Amino acid sequence: MSMNNAEWINRGESVFVGTYSRFPAAMIRGDGCRLWDADGKEYLDFLAGIAVCSLGHCHPAVTRAVCEQAAKLMHVSNLFHTEPQIQLAELLTANSFADRVFMANSGAEANEAAIKLARIHSDEGRFEVISLSGSFHGRTLATVAATGQPKFHQGFEPLPSGFVHAGFGDPHKIEALITDKTCAVLCEPLQGESGVRPLDGAYLQAIRALCDKHGLLLIFDEVQTGIGRTGSLFAYQQLGVIPDIMTLAKALGNGLPIGAMLTRKEIAASLGVGTHASTFGGNPVAAAAGVAVLQTMLADGFFASLQGRSDYFVEQLQGVAARFPGLATGVRGRGMLLGLVLTERGIEHGADIVQQLFKKGLLINFAGMRVLRFIPPLIVSREEIDQCIEQVTSVLADIK
Ligand SMILES: Cc1ncc(COP(=O)(O)O)c(C=O)c1O
Description:
The protein is α/β, with parallel strands linked by helices. The chain is built from 13 helices and 17 strands. Helix 3 packs antiparallel against helix 10 and helix 11 runs parallel beside helix 13.
């Protein structure tokens, strides 16, 4: 007998460690930009599994690739070569600055690999990584330490040493932290979790210049911005800056867990046999999903069409900000990683706005406690954008 939301939630809450504050719904099925819960309610999904299901739920090419691979070979470990993993690494290198890939299972793991590489590659035992305040790099101990938000550190001290955080927006603040121990600068080209904060091209170019001047590696965490999210396959491609190392995860498998660390051959050479590994990293089924994702996005017209819909979405959100100046100040972000920036008064209502939208069947979230974040599947249609705007408008209009 099928169970409803309340029954699933009761069962779940009696068995899980309570790390998550979940919406009161058990999701059963997805298709494109739509989800359905155990009560049969339909949702318009502008969260996409937190910027993961970029081709939409159950995209036919991905589902086909996963099913075919699962029927052929699911796992052999990295003691062997496998076809999908090689194809995926070839696609990633052919379409980026990089020519070497290490496969992981998540964003945090990809960042761990990047941090280990930066340390082992540096001369004279340099080990310190400079990241930015407001950044988010994951939940393992090293990536929590790299994350520039104290709320993620609390209760877990002492954190691994070798991580310092520079104030956001000013390259001099980074330069002031460079010592003879520094090996790398780590940053997201656009900070997603802390409130959709883009780093502009000039700022990133200044960071690149600092890295060159001081012999540091520049690591871009493109876990959230990568794989099409900001309107090009990788965010760095729009910014006139090329990193030395780039990390990916989230949308790479459209929902299957896979991460990757990309770099150039000369740098990769520092991670020799036995220095790093993962049992599951680049698992054949997850890698087959990744191949299908990249082939779909690299097809003609994908990014041109995305840009048109992104421009339309930005315009509509700007219209919302203009209509509710007491609640919203404007829009920021790129591609389909967009934020409606709230005023102080709007921020007080932010969490409630998200809950009201959930009740109306629209899924978004409140990023960094200051911005309503919209990260729909990249295939979202103009009609779906209109529906989203209609719901947001009606919820904001209800705030007295
Ligand atoms: C920029 C960035 N880096 C790293 C991570 C961590 O990824 P994961 O949750 O797959 O470990 C996230 C997740 O939100 C992220 O946005």
